[in-house]
Amino acid sequence: MSSESTQAHGLRDSKRLRWVYLALSLLSRARIGSRHRVFLLAVVIGVAGALSSYLFKELVHGINHLMTGTSSKGYVDAFQHLSLLQRILIPTIGSAIAGLLLMAGKRIDNRQATDYMEAVSLGNGDVPARPSILKSVAAACSIGSGVSIGREGPLVQLAAVGASILGRLLREPPARLRLLVACGAAAGVAAAYNAPIGGAIFVAEIIIGSIAVESLGPLLVASVASTITIRAIDPNLVSYSIQTPFESGLLSVLLFAMLGILCGFAAPLFIATLKTGKRIFAPIRLPLPIKLGIGGLLFGLIAAFHPEVAGNGQSVIRGMLDGMFTWQTIGMLALLKILAVTVVFGSGTVGGVFTPSLLVGASLGYLWSVLLHQLGFAIIPPEVSALVGMGCFLAAATHAPFMAVFLLFEMCLHPGILIPLTVSTLFSYSIARSLGGASLYLESLQSGPKSVFDKDIATLTVSEIVRPQGSRTLPSSTFGEIATRFLRASEDMLPVTDPDGRFLGSILLQDVRPYLKERVLADSIIARDIMREDIRTLDASFDLPHALRTFSETGQPSLPVTDSKTGILLGMLEKNDLYLVVSEITRRAGVHST
Amino acid sequence: MRPDHVLCPLIASNAQDAIQILMDGMKGLPAITHSEDFLKEVFLREKESSTHIGHGVAIPHARSRNVSGMVLAAGRLDQEILWDSSGKPVRIVLLMGIPPQCIEIYLGVMKAFAHGFRKQNLASRILQAPDTNAFSQILSSVLADI
Fold first, then answer.
1. Which of B45, B107, B118 lies at the smallest CB-CB distance from A530?
2. Which of A116, A316, A494, B136 could form a disulfide with A350 if both were Cys (CB 3.0 to 4.6 A apart)?
3. Is residue B103 less than 8 Å (CB to CB) from chain A?
């Protein structure tokens, strides 16, 4: 190499190095606050949720391929290529294997109920990893064998487990851990339905129970990160798009409102049917593999003559939207699907019921359009009516109208359905709520582990929601160490303790912020020089109203929590975390009282 | 802001002597409410971690309720002494007291001195100062912007 080219390379390298240095310098100057930290974690959780969803889907396809011997990614297609006997045996064997895995899982850890739907119970945010993963593998066996159950439940659960593990590793306090698990669930829903906003609203409306900005932001970030990732790696995403042009008018909106009313009555019936399945199987005292095997066998008997009931129902919906079925076939398939889901779900098979619900709603919508055509109102194309039916049935079944509108719109991206979908959804939701029945996910959410959020606000103490302190700051800790902690972490205050852990005082970010980058001070100042001894602390035995009062008196965003008898520092409590806990407890109290 | 007491030369054989002599020079200052207690706090702070900052300089200090405003005494030794807690040679000693609430002033002063001694050759300027007045003026110029 000539000296000129060496010089040119050297120049380029030095320019690159300058850019790298500039980037590192900017990065080191950026102090990540607690909100930014949640958003960053939400991105990580979103990406991880999409990856776990993809891996689960591939696992299910692999099992399906192994059992059916076909390479088709559609369960209906795979079942159509099987013999009559195979259609009966494969789901029976698959369900029995799933039962064996569930039984093994229960022996390892008996913490969770066998229900496994799209809505995870957030509890304290501590979603146990081993039983959840074992149940996911069991679900993969059931779903892979083609039984009528949704795969979205395990997708959501796996993403939530990943978020819970991350949050626990980072020692997040209960309120923050719950939010991260909720982000995981949102990522799972978004990846399953290719619906970033729908995923976030699903969790906000159904699991958290409020569309508050505080939690919606991280949920959206996780869902969007998940959707971007899944779109990049999975070419076979759910899409219910249609090419049919449609503009709604006054009459069509009125007719859609009537569809909404119809769905508002039908959805509680669907839920009641699912519960009946559970009630029928409940007294059967047989080992899980046999019980699930019976469910698989009953499903196999239906699928033997009507393989269209196989899987979650996605391909049938697609076929319906593409005009592949007559209305008679659709009516029959809807009834058979309800029967199949009832026996499979009733037997205790783990999986979701979201997509099967969509199929029922789509069928209702389609048949409504056909009926209107017969009555002389040929103004709504059946495929458009099917889409709207999906949305309003979903809203009535889940008691989550916003989620239904957003999710459906994202899945079809048809501008013409937005108004009729919104109107009919509101009608279906109102009717379903006025009938007073439970939502599809109520039992799943209520059967989750009890947490601090189920306690009374006056009996819950600060010690139960405190964030444990990580590394310790001693009076002799140097300014360099203190600055590093402030720059790396999101704290506004560093508590200082003696070597035995007794609280001495706190260093406030507001005091030292202008000097954090001063290297000349790194060794000449120690924590004792800059700590404040007049900082109020929260006694670990304080109840939440007392803690709220203390926060309002001090105006501090976070306060140290100590044991009043020993003076030992137990950790820190952030005002935002306290508000999250209080609002969740208040919300739950409101729900229970109604 | 200017030093309250400047001693040139400061005659002391060790750090404790140097601190005690500078403290004696500040006795009677209205800003020092309890000089004995303040002195104890300075020694306690010294015990916790050495206040030797390099360049032959030590800044013994304490944030204390026994001072109502910032106080500063400075001394220049003709012969270097070994600063007790660090075992390093020292020729310039700055004794400082700051009320507990004045953290920002404390950090500002420490930054000004640390910059001065590390980057502006402050130590040699002090060592070459012909008299107490010049020494005092050098310190005042360092503290001028605080």
1. B107
2. A116
3. yes
